[in-house]
């Protein structure tokens, strides 16, 4: 699942790429949440129709396996505040960016999470799995 901005950025890059990883990414179905896009989308993408509260449960019921969301800060926030995300996976990389946004959600509010799991990789990356806190 992608928001409009992430979809437009990735769809402008990946279709022209080749190789094992690119072939896998390009073949995956994509579901795009947007209030401004309309009609058919390229890059094996489908526009989510209607309210998120209706379209996401329908999507969850209609696919085999898990849904994954990439990027999409505004879209992620819209899903989170509506209680539509079952699990958060956060990859913590051992580096500090010198520029960019300070907060994931900016000044749009707070989503409370509880830690459910920790996995450390040999590279130093840590995967933190969070669940929405009721």
Automatic annotation (TrEMBL):
Biological process, per Gene Ontology: riboflavin biosynthetic process
Highest taxon of source: Bacteria
Gene3D superfamilies reported in the protein's UniProt record: Dihydrofolate Reductase, subunit A (3.40.430.10)
Pfam families, per the entry: RibD_C (PF01872)
GO terms for MF: 5-amino-6-(5-phosphoribosylamino)uracil reductase activity
Residue ranges occupied by any Bacterial bifunctional deaminase-reductase C-terminal domain in the UniProt entry: 1-127
SUPFAM superfamilies attached to this UniProt entry: Dihydrofolate reductase-like
Protein name: Dihydrofolate reductase
Taxonomic source organism: Kribbella shirazensis
